[in-house]
Amino acid sequence: MVAMGLLAPASLLPAVVSAQAEPRQLRSVRFEGATAFSDAILHASIESEPGRCRNILLEAVCFFGLAREHQNANLNILQGDAIRLQLLYYEHGYRSARVVLDTVSEQGQLHAIFRITEGLPVQVGSVDIAGIDQVDSRSRARLLGAVSTLPLQPDRPFSMIAYEAARDTLINRLHNLGYAHADVFANARVPRDSARVAHVTYELAPAGRVYFGEPEVQGNERVSSRVIRRMLAFKEGDVYSRDAVLRSHRSLYSLEIFRNIDIHTDLDAAGDTITPLVTIQEGALNRFRAGMGLNTAEFFNAEGRWTGRNFMGGARRIEVRARLANVLADPLEVLPVFENTSAPYDALNGSLNLDFTQPWFFDAGNNFSAGLFFERRSIPGVFVRTARGGYLAVSRTLGAGTSAGIGYRPELTELNAEDEIFCINFVACEESEIRLLSEPHRLAPLVLSLARDRSNGLFAPTRGYILRLEAEYAAAATGSEFAYARLIGEWTLYREPAAGLVLATRVRPGWARSINEPGAGLGLHLQKRFFAGGANSVRGFGQYRLGPKLLKIGADTLLVPDLESGFAGCSAQQINAGTCDVSLLAEHRRGLFHERPVGGAVSFEANVEARFALVGEKLRGAAFIDIGQVWTAGAKVRPTDLVPTPGLGLRFMSAIGPVRVDLGYNTETGGELQVLTTKVCVPEDGRCTADSIRDDVVYTPDQLGKTRVLVPLGKVPWGMNRSPWDRIQLHFSIGQAF
């Protein structure tokens, strides 16, 4: 019961608006004098809405009154809006607030102005809890400890909404402590004096404590009742908890077996025991899915998946997945929208995975999973990775959309490349080092992960956030030939500041380093380095083209003069000694050089994207700015190295997700890049080795062969003075960028 006086309805009425002919259109709505609430909250509290621009891209046209959605003005609704605004203030403690409606008619249009006098709010002086001695000591301590988190707090405006929310919060907490029949009575004293301070008391009526009885299960046909009971977050004899019932819903739905689940607890039943009734509707236990896609980095790709959801009983899940990429790469890579790759990067890629999941592992919140995999994956211009291995992992559900896990992922991996550019830590590589990197070797990290998904959609969220954290550690003790530590995080936030407008932001930092153990002298393994740029990264760059790069040029090209650039050619001795000057070629014949990203140990990416409607609900637009960089080591991180890339995009909202086209603009100013080539030699017995190179011999072109030893030829200016058209990067893919 609330002991306070209410204002008479007449006191809430605004001043009467002078009689006038009602204009045809409501042009604008303004609020004057409002400081306690934002305009967005005030607009949401009224019914009147002025005409708005049909599309955010047409704002310049709408400024002149064109392309606007017109709304008719209604003085009766506007007067009601003034009452609604005054009630808003009253409910939030501003009991002396007054709202007066004023209107201005101009060229057949109406401008509505709400003039607000807020006054001082009634403050909360104290919040007390009575009757707490009726609960047990442990519950008493938890309730008292939670007082500071109630929605209603001292020294804040006395909000009726927070007043009722605090009561509901106390009832819910009593129910979760086993007091299923509890109630809470609220009382507020607001003295009619100048102090304007409210004193609030919540009186607890916990009644008796209630316990769970043995759950009854019905509706199941192929999944045993034992499995269903085991997945519940409570068992017979546990103290009743409303949260335990909700966790049980989530636990059962996570099996992806049941179409509908209802856990009924009859709180009106007499006695201190509640018998939950679990009603199940089973879905399909076997599912097969297939799909295909197209993007500028992997060309056509296809995926198939079969899932068995009650493997050998016990709601165990087994899944077989197969994926192909680079399908039709040869005919498509000639088109300018696709990444121009060459062998071996454009060869058919794919993966085959076998995954097993045990949904109950010592506890309903734990999952055990294991699997085997084979994978061949290309990173164009860097390497082709072939790996086979397996994994073991345990994950635990921590709450709605939140989970943590620990895993072990041993694999045998090997790298292949068009040349030995992946051996770049020493600039010039020895044969033994190249051999070590290109032959199969073991990586076996321990992995810790945390994921929290509080977004409201799968394909195109509009509110909420997603947080992911992952840490890897590999060493000789874990069975790894390369020792390293690696951390990566990702935080994505979605907001809808206006109807039809979604603001999506993402931050993605990463850090890694090699650990000084045997086998780690070659630096951070290339597979664990960070690469940036691409359709889901910094979109002003092609796939993996942001960050440290080298330039590769063939030695046979350097032996021949180039008349177009004025390059006189170099001798084998100059090439092998690294004294061949390639600056003229770099200035005039850029096509002879090939950029090779080398990755780094530290990365940072940030994205801001505004998504808005264009035509109906299917065609949407986007304006974005991406920023990022990759550094070779933590000591070399400089914020001034970050490269911003603005852009625009289109999205067609299809049944399989947004079909996306993005145009990003590269603002990188350029710099100097190291040039590498291969030493030359005379083949001996059909083989060309570093030992066969002789600096005192002049080799003829038909005698020359290539070694696997890379040598530096100095640095040349690169990426400067590019035309605006050369800076535009096109991306085509399916799915949102983040």
How far apart the termini lie comes to 49 Å
Question: Mean pLDDT, as a whole number?
Answer: 82
- Specify the helix fraction band: 10-25%
The main β sheet shows up as: 18 strands, antiparallel
Tell the overall outline.
globular
- The residue ranges in which pLDDT falls below 50 over 5 or more consecutive positions are 1-20, 424-430, 689-704
Query: What's the Cα radius of gyration?
Result: 34 Å
Structural class: mainly beta
Number of DSSP helical runs: 13
Strand content: 35-45%
The count of β-strands is: 35
In short:
The chain is mainly beta and 738 residues long. Helices cover 14% and strands 40% of the residues.
Q: Could you walk me through the main structural features you see in this protein, from its secondary elements to its overall organization?
A:
This protein is mostly beta strands and 738 residues long. The chain is 14% helix and 40% strand. The strands form 7 sheets. It has an 18-stranded antiparallel beta sheet that branches. A 4-stranded mixed beta sheet has the order 28-27-33-34. Strands 1-5-4 form a 3-stranded mixed beta sheet. The longest helix has 17 residues, at 75-91. Mean pLDDT is 82; it is low at 1-20, 424-430 and 689-704.
Which key terms come to mind for this protein?
disordered N terminus, 13 helices, four-stranded mixed β-sheet, single chain, mainly beta, 738 residues, 18-stranded antiparallel β-sheet
